[in-house]
Amino acid sequence: MHRFAFVIHPIKPKDAARKYPIAKYMPDWVIEKVYGKKKPFIGSYIKGIESKTGAKTEGLFIICPLTPDMMLHKLPLEAVYEKLIYCSELAKSEGAEIMGLGAFTSVVGDGGITVAKNSPIAITTGNSYTIATAIQGAMEAANLVGIDIPNANLAVVGATGSIGRTCARIMSPNFAKTTVIGRDPERTQAVADECTRTVSSVDVSSIKDADVIITVSSAGTDIIFPEHLKRGAVVCDVARPRDVSAKVASERPDVLVIEGGVVAVPGDVDFGMSFGFPPKTAFACMSETMMLALDGKIENFTLGKDVSVEQVEETIRLADKHGFKLAGYRAFEREVNQDAIDRARNARG
């Protein structure tokens, strides 16, 4: 049996209260100062994962006590790398052979390359299977709400990142027009040049004519609001923290928002902790790490700021082989029901 580890972290300072209840009463800056000095630690042990081939794996969640703001703005990059390398050493001490980097630990710095060079075990960001499930989920949802994809417009927000860029490359040939949105004009235009029938923009409001939107920025805060969205649009929000404001859920019932990468994990799975998903389901990035362990593919897999189409296709093959599959749709910590799909479909006329 090959064991794995996966790194998770608090999205906002008050998340520390899940481990330390006193944090509820502390200012955010105090939490960051105290919590950020802690070494990464084991959050839970994961048991019961079993492939349809009969292969089994076990693992653990390692909690890195850094928020996105701390990783991106408040700490030197070297200090963040030090924490993540410590995670890999802790993982090895627990018998793990491969470790996945979750949420912002997968995008900070060079996207896992430096961590992999200094890690005693294999590293993956999970971005290949995240892309696969984002594309599958968005395309299936578009069909459900009646979007005529060959005549529809696609927008990719955060297109210069590894996930956004590859989503744009793979999806743009299916659409009449694609708009890629990023913060850097030159890098965003470079992505557009790689894609079919694609234009670039640095303005999020450029998504107003999009029928299907993939959003996967590293903004760390809400950037998509009710006024940005077309009636009957499908939005697949892969970003953590979310890009889509909660106001969209309350003010725009005519829009279908889904979270990318919600996956049913094979076996009688016990994650040992709750991260807001139904039992036996996980993020796609977590699932990539698990399926690599099940397959005995103990090697650095998805690293850096570029993800190839071949890597995405390989994770689809591994998912089919071992029994990982999309687990319906969720958004804003709730299941997306048929009523939500019907409202978006009816809004398109």
Give the rounded overall mean pLDDT.
Answer: 93
Q: Domain count, please report it.
A: 2
Give the strand line-up of the largest sheet: 5-4-1-3-2-13
Head-to-tail CA distance between termini: 53 Å
- Which structural category fits the helices and strands? alpha/beta
Number of helices: 11
Radius of gyration over C-alpha positions, nearest whole angstrom: 19 Å
In short:
With 349 residues, the chain is an alpha/beta fold. It has helices at residues 28-35, 68-74, 77-93, 113-118, 127-144, 162-171, 185-194, 246-251, 284-294, 309-322, 338-347, and strands spanning 3-8, 41-50, 56-63, 96-101, 122-124, 153-157, 177-181, 198-201, 212-215, 234-237, 256-259, 262-264, 267-270, 281-283, 325-326, 330-331, 334-335.
Structural commentary:
- This protein has about 350 residues and is α/β, with parallel strands linked by helices.
- It has 2 domains: about 5-130 and about 265-315, no CATH class; about 130-260 and about 330-345, 3-Layer(aba) Sandwich (Rossmann fold).
- The chain is built from 11 helices and 17 strands.
- Helix 5 packs across helix 6 (about 160-170) and helix 5 (about 125-145) crosses helix 9.
- The longest helix has 18 residues, at about 125-145.
- The radius of gyration is 19 Å and the shape is globular.
- The model has no long low-confidence stretch (mean pLDDT about 95).
